Every structure is written in C-alpha cells, then in structure tokens.
TrEMBL record:
InterPro entries: P-loop_NTPase, Thymidine_kinase
GO CC terms in record: cytosol
Molecular function terms, GO-annotated: ATP binding; thymidine kinase activity
Enzyme Commission (EC) number: 2.7.1.21
Species whose genome carries this gene: Candidatus Neomicrothrix parvicella RN1
Transmembrane segments: none
The protein's name in its UniProt record: Thymidine kinase
Keywords: ATP-binding, DNA synthesis, Kinase, Nucleotide-binding, Transferase
Catalyzed reactions: thymidine + ATP = dTMP + ADP + H(+)
Family: Belongs to the thymidine kinase family.
Length: 273
C-alpha cells in the first residue's frame, strides 16, 4: 500500500476524514478529538535565506514524488516569475498560485468541490496527497493552519519552503506560524555567503544600492548578480529594489560590500533604538 494511504493505526485518512472547518482550531489547548488523521503525513517547514536553494529543493521534492506516481501539487505565492516555482539553477515548473484569502482546505482537500478544486486535481493528476509550498513566508497565517488541518485530517504531506526573517531581521508572520505548527523544521544546508565570506544569515533590502531597515514587508525582488540587470529587478517609486545576503554583523552595520565608500552604512539607528 502506498505510504500516503496509511492513516494512524493503519486506518485510511480518507475513511476517517473530518472537514477542516470542524476541527477545534489551533487556539484550542490539547488534542482535538478530530485530529486522528495520518500518522505518516507531516507538516515540514524548511527555511533559509534568499538564495539558499529553497525553490530548487521544492522542485526536486515535487519531481521525485511525481516520478513515483504520487499525486500532488506544487504551490507558490508571489514568486518572482509568477505562477511557477523557479530556481536560480534554471529549473522551473508550473505551480498553483496561492492568493491572499484563498481557502486551501476548500481547494486542496479530498472533498473539495468547484472549478478551482477540479483544476487543482487535474494538475495533481488525482486527489491531492502532498503539497510542496514555496515562498511559504508569504502565506496567510490562516493558510498555514489550513495546511496543518490537511495533514492531520486527510493525511496530506506538506513540504513548505520559506524565509525565516525579513529585511527588518524579524520573523515573517507566516514563518512564525510554520515554526509553531510544523512537525519538522529544518534549515537548508546550502550556505549562502556574505561578501566577507561568513555564512549569510540575514536578507538585506537595498534601495538604489543602499540598505534600508524600514518599509513594506513584502516587496518581490531578486539578489545580484541577476538582480540589478534582470527583468525581474523591482522598481518601486522609480527606485531600484534588490536584496543582498549578509552575515548578522554586516547586516547590522549596513555594510553591503567591501568598499566603505560605496557600501557604507546608511542608517543604523533603527537597530540601536
Ligand atoms: N550557475 C550555478 N551553478 C551552481 N549553482 C548555482 C548556480 N546559480 C545558482 N546556483 C545555486 O542556486 C542557489 C539558489 O537556488 P534557489 O533555489 O533559487 O534559492 P532560493 O529559492 O532559496 O532563493 C544558490 O545558492 C546556488 O547554490
Ligand atoms: C527578505 C525579504 C524578501 N522579500 C521577497 C523578495 C523575493 O521576492 C522573495 C524571496 O524569494 P527567494 O525565493 O527566497 O529568493 O521575498 C520580501 O518581500 N520581503 C523581505 O523582507
């Protein structure tokens, strides 16, 4: 029997499924009577900086599951290339575009009805038994909870890939929710590097080449070398937005490169205040 058909105690998760909407909710303390889905399925959260290989690994996992005949979807939200998961290694694949407020239980669940659910099942090649979710930091917190319900109630395996912290050095709200709910949390093993050679732990946002610490949380953009010249480089109010990977020390200092003249501190008062 394929792995995804085994529920807890060997029961089929589909036979004992309970609609996501009926579960007590994550605010409730202690296990819910309805939480008796698959013992095998897990909510996995993989995190790293930009350029740490998240999309590459998401594509690999989806490819390997598909290659063994498992039916599931690749999903993304606000990917740079729109409607697909794209890796800087050059691989890309069509993906379900998760939009704000989209009810993932209603779209991905085994009992889901309607044209969106049918389209998803067509893309999955059958009932959704796994979800590979890229750009997971952009999901609504409610959507993270909906995916956790799919794991517990329907035995759907979820593999989520996202950033830990924003350009402000704070957890994304969705990331906090992934960390709170995940069965497994893993840091990506490919070490992105700061210009100084240390492991990059922070994502800096640069406006016209200068690091900033305040602004909108979500601004789709890219890292050099593709960033500055790429079509995907983001223009915001006629300013060029790029991202740079830095070690904590250089992120705090606002030092985005070796030359103190051109890679100088712009404002570090935010972190001290
Ligand atoms: N030409 C290349 N040769 C080998 N690896 C590359 C090349 N270009 C990019 N990469 C790898 O791709 C990684 C970025 O992968 P990607 O999946 O796009 O990252 P993320 O989704 O985390 O932003 C880089 O850390 C680097 O290891
Ligand atoms: C740090 C940070 C990043 N973003 C955006 C920029 C990119 O579009 C994505 C991350 O993509 P990747 O696949 O991990 O390279 O997130 C943002 O909106 N806000 C931020 O603080």
């Amino acid at each position: 029997m394929p792995m995804h058909h085994l529920g807890r105690c060997g029961h089929s998760p589909h036979a004992e499924s309970v609609s996501a909407g009926t579960v007590g909710g994550f605010g409730a303390v202690g296990p819910s009577a309805a939480n008796y889905g698959s013992a095998v399925a897990k909510l996995r959260f993989f995190f790293g900086t930009m350029g740490s290989g998240k999309s590459t690994q998401a594509l690999q996992i989806h490819h390997n599951l598909r290659a063994r005949g498992l039916t599931g979807v690749l999903a993304t939200k606000l990917d740079r290339s729109g409607g697909q998961v794209s890796s800087r290694l050059g691989v890309a694949a069509e993906a379900l575009e998760v939009t704000p407020g989209m009810d993932l239980g209603a779209v991905l669940g085994p009992d889901a009805e309607g044209s969106a659910a049918r389209a998803v099942r067509r893309q999955a090649g059958g009932p959704v038994t796994y979800v590979v979710a890229d750009e997971a930091q952009f999901y609504d917190e409610t959507q993270v909870e909906q995916l956790a319900h799919l794991v517990d109630d329907h035995g759907v395996d979820v593999y989520a890939f996202g950033l830990l912290t924003s350009f402000q050095g704070r957890l994304f709200p969705a990331t906090a929710r992934w960390l709170e709910l995940a069965d497994e949390r893993s840091e990506l093993q490919v070490e992105a590097r700061c210009w100084c050679g240390a492991r990059a732990t922070h994502n800096a946002r640069l406006i016209d080449g200068r690091q900033i610490y305040e602004g909108d949380l979500l601004v789709v953009g890219d890292t050099p070398p593709s960033g500055p010249d790429a079509q995907t480089s983001m223009e915001l109010d006629e300013h060029r937005v790029t991202y740079e990977l830095l070690c904590r020390s250089h992120w705090v200092q606002g030092r985005t490169g070796p030359d103190p003249e051109t890679h100088h501190l712009v404002r570090n008062e935010r972190i001290d205040s």
